[in-house]
Amino acid sequence: MLQHLLFMTTALVVAANTSLTLNSPTDLSYTSQCGEYTYFEVSFPYPCQDLNVTVNALAGNPEIYVSKTLTSPTKRDLNWSAVQTDSLLINHFDPESSPGKVY
Predict the structure, then answer these.
(1) Coil, strand, or helix at residue 46?
(2) Residue 89: Cβ-neighbour burial (10 angstroms; 0-12, 13-18, 19+)
(3) Staple partner for 51: which of 12, 16, 25, 90, CB 3.0–4.6 Å?
(4) In 3D, which of 60, 58, 98, 59 has the Cα closest to residue 79?
């Protein structure tokens, strides 16, 4: 069965409550086929703030995979992930967390 995953994405700096765009307007919807990935890149220059990645699923069950080094993270190659939930909080105390680009 072919399933479509429709979602909108935002990345928030929790402590500063500042929205970051993901190289596109935040009002866009993205569609991914079941088993496919949609990639984004965001610069996160805040060393003492948490990063919250949120996916607003319009249909389907999204999984979030985030990497500090790989521009195309997967469920096997990643730093952080969120499955069965629509958001992922990356705590700034996490040893893998640091300012810079996040994919």
Answers:
(1) coil
(2) middle
(3) 90
(4) 98
Angstrom CA distances, 43 to 12, 32, 55, 63, stand at: 12, 23, 18, 21
Give Cα 62 distance to the centre of its chain. 10
User: Residue 70: how many CB atoms within 10 A of its CB?
Assistant: 14
Residues 30-40 pLDDT 10s? 677 777 788 88
Residue 94 β-bridge partners: none
Q: Is the pLDDT of residue 5 over 70?
A: no
- Put simply, whether the predicted model's pTM sits higher than 0.90 gets the answer no
> Which DSSP string corresponds to 59-98?
ES---EEE-SS-SS--SSS-SEEE-SSSEEEE-TTSTT--
